[in-house]
Design goal:
Elements lengths: L4 E5 L2 E5 L5 H7 L4 E4 L5 E3 L11 E4 L2 E4 L10 E3 L7
Parallel strand pairs: 1-7
Antiparallel strand pairs: 1-2, 3-4, 5-6, 5-7
Bound molecules: FE2/S2 (inorganic) cluster.
Protein name: Ferredoxin
InterPro entries: 2Fe-2S-bd_N (IPR042204), 2Fe-2S_ferredoxin-like_sf (IPR036010), 2Fe-2S_ferredoxin-type (IPR001041)
Keywords: Oxidoreductase, Plasmid
C-alpha cells in the first residue's frame, strides 16, 4: 500500500498522486479556481500546457504555472493574492 502524499493549498492539506502537477492535484480534489490574478481576474486550469498563464499560483514566493509545476510532498501553494504562509 502506498502512503498518501499531501501538499498544502491555501493552508488546507490536499492529497496527490506521484507525478501530478499542482493543477491536476487540485482538480482531483475538485478545486478548480486558484484565486485571482493581480488584475482581479479569476485564475484556473485552462490550457494545461503553460501557454495561457491562467493558472498562476505562488510557491516559495514566486509565481508559477500550476499546470506545469510538479507537486511534491509538503509543498506550500498559495493563490497569487494570498499572503505568504
Ligand atoms: S493552464 Fe494555461 S498556463 Fe497553466
Amino acid at each position: 500500500m502506498t502512503a498518501v502524499r499531501t501538499f498544502f493549498w491555501r493552508g488546507s492539506e490536499v492529497p496527490f498522486r506521484a507525478g501530478e502537477s499542482i493543477a491536476a492535484a487540485l482538480a482531483g480534489s475538485n478545486i478548480h479556481g486558484f484565486g485571482k490574478d493581480p488584475a482581479g481576474s479569476p485564475t484556473r486550469y485552462f490550457c494545461g500546457i503553460g501557454a495561457c498563464q491562467s493558472c498562476l499560483v505562488r510557491v516559495d514566493g514566486r509565481a508559477t504555472e500550476a499546470c506545469l509545476e510538479p507537486v511534491y510532498d509538503g509543498m506550500v501553494v498559495m493563490a497569487l493574492e494570498d499572503d505568504d504562509a
